[in-house]
Each structure stands twice: as structure tokens, then as C-alpha cells.
Fold:
Amino acid sequence: MPVAMRSPQVVLRRPIGRSVRLFHIALLNGVLGASAAAAAAESVAGPLAGQTVRMAFIDPLSGPAADIGRNSLRSWQFMAERRSGAGNPAGLRFIVAGFDNKGSPQESLNALKVAIDQGFRYIVQGNGSGVAAAISDAVARHNQRHPEQTVLHINYAATDPALTNEKCSFWHFRIDADTAMKMRALTAFMAEQPGLDSVYLLNQNYAHGQQFSRYFRDAMAQQRPDVQIVGDELHPPFQGVDFTRYARRVKASGAHALATGNWGSDLRDLVRALQKEGVTIPLYAYYPGLKGVPEVLAQTGERMPVYQVAYHHSNQEGPIGELAAAFRQRYGEDMAVYASYDGIEMLAQAMADVGSTDPARVAPRLSGMIFKGFNGPVHLRADDHQLQKGQYISRWQKVDAQHPRSAGGTGYTFAPVKFLHGAELSSPVRCQMARP
Structure:
């Protein structure tokens, strides 16, 4: 039987090294400098007031991942609405239009062509690294052939590290942490847990799931080489898999924890199978906060400990918390893509700074930019266009006075137990970026 694990200690503000402190001082100075620059350029930004920036959202709006895609689209549209006009330093109006790619790289390229033909110059996409790679390559080719009609690609969730390394592009900007960064955060937390001696890995059989497995093995070997991987399985993604047999194998393995990068219907069905088979070992995952999963988790309360690694949690403070609450009130579901705040914020700030909405002028300003994200200053690294953003580890629990906002309206929430700064999670740069 698995060894019982004690509840983790809450370590939200642990001491950080001198280099990390200096990094955050630099970030704060950068934000102040950017604010001063925006104020100084007020006369330049004035002509932008009232102009419209049209953004094409290309992700699944039909098929097995449609619920996540539609929630993501609403997140971007809601944030564009709330951050338009007086809500941004340029006085710009942002609108986001949805294009259904059905989860297919080829359909995505078709949608990209239609969007460009319709005059969209900013492309937003996040579900699927294969799709992200196809769009990034196509955008780079388009910009080389049509420099007068430059297009910019904002990746809000596709986490393949290659997208900002071997496959990096000047026109591609990732505003989520990549898998290597998330895995450093997750395994750093897991390594601290007493009694954790063995882990079972179960993932979707495509690039994301394969990378989850590989990066988990590498990161855990560095953190805790004594931890054994007692199972490592891949299953077909989004094909209505019966997870009962996988749940039974997890239970029979005697693993002390299960780790997965599954999302959407595959994660919901996995959790249901674990509940049915009475599996109560801790579950460590990237996406248990996405639409539909909290409702399934709530069916058995806290019997199975669940931990999420993400750049946010259910009870973010400040303006983003108020926006998340307003989103919930309007749509009756949680806002999944907090990165939409960062995406609109960075574009508005860059456009105000350069006095233009032309991607050919905006992209160089974004490269290396420091701006105020939804939970503090962040750095969009110039060398590879990877956002350096901290990650929370949060635990599934009942709402309480300190964590009153529930996930999915369930009466349960993801409460933060650890935060790791972006500078602690950074990967070495391997990008050889060709700049125009």
C-alpha cells in the first residue's frame, strides 16, 4: 500500500537568492521605466486612441477539445473588452474573433490564410504545440514574402520548449511557461514531499504528453534520483479511452503518486476512473483547473489530494481576481486563460511606446520587454521570446476564509502552497533567432 503522505507545508514566500532578488529589482525598474516612457510618449499615443486592433484566435471550437477552446476564446474576448479604451495606455480598442481549427495543423493553416486575407495581423493560439509550430513557420514565411503585411503570433499555452529554442521565430511570442519550466516547479515541490518514493506517469500520446514524461524523468532525476518511475504509459488523445484499465494498473503498481499532463475530456475521464477504482494517491497535474475537471473532483471531495502547477490559482488577488469573478458571473464558468491579460497588456504597452499598431514596429518593442503582468512584473526574454513567469503549486481543498473563491462553483478551490519565481525556472537559451 502507498505510504501515507503528510500535508505539505505552505511555502509561499520562501527566501530567494541574491541573483533572483536583483532580477526582480531590475523588473520593477523596467516597469517603472516603461511607465515613464508611456507617460512621456502620451502625445505619440494620442493618435492611437480609438483605433482598433483585430486579433484572430485560432484553436478548437468544435470536436473533443471544443469546451476548452471556447472558454479560451471567451477569456481573450472578455479581457480585450475590459482592457480596451481607457483600460490600456494607448486608448486602443481590441477585438478577438474566433477561427475553428478543429485541433488540426492543416485546418489551422487554412484558418491562418483566411484570417490574413481578412486583414488580421495578430494571431492568438495555444492548444497544441504541433499547431503552434505550423502557425509559427507559416507566419515567418508570410512575413518574409510580404513585409508590408507583417503578422505576429502570440502563443498562450503551447508548451513545447522547441518553439522558443530550435524552432524559435522572431514573430513568435510565448506568454506561458514551457514544459521544462513547469516541470522544474512541479518536481521541486514533489521532491520535498516525505514518503514519495515512486511515481506513475500517464499521458496523452502526442508531443505534449511525450514531453511531459521525458521532462519529468529528467527533472526528477536531478531533484530526487531515489524516486522510482513504476509506470510510464501513453494513450491515444481525445478518443474516448476507457481509463478503467489504466486506473487499475496505477493502483496495482503501488505508486505513491500519479503525474499527468492530460487535459480536457481525457483528464476528466481519468479522474472518474480513479474515483471508481478507489485510487486516492496524490495526483500532480498541469490542468486540473480547466473547465469541467473541478466538477468531477468535487464528487469525492478531498479523498484524492490534487496538486496543480500553473502561473495562477483560484484566488488571485488584485484586479485580475476581480476580472476572474466578473467572468464567472457573466459566463457561469471559470476563466481559464489568465495569460489573456498579459497578452493584451503587453500589446497595448508596446503599441503605446512605438506609437503604432503595425506588427513590424510592435514586435521589436516586445522583444526583451518588461511589463506588468496580472500578478507582477514579467520579462519577455529577447533571446528567445519566452516569457519568464513564476509558477504556483496549488492544492485542491474546500474554500475557506483565506481562499473564498471556488473552482467551477464547486465549493472547493485550488489554494497556493508554493510559488517559484520565473528566474528560478529559466532554461538556458538555445535559440538562434534570425531577426529582420
Notes: Residues 180-316+391-424 form a domain with the Rossmann fold fold (CATH 3.40.50.2300).
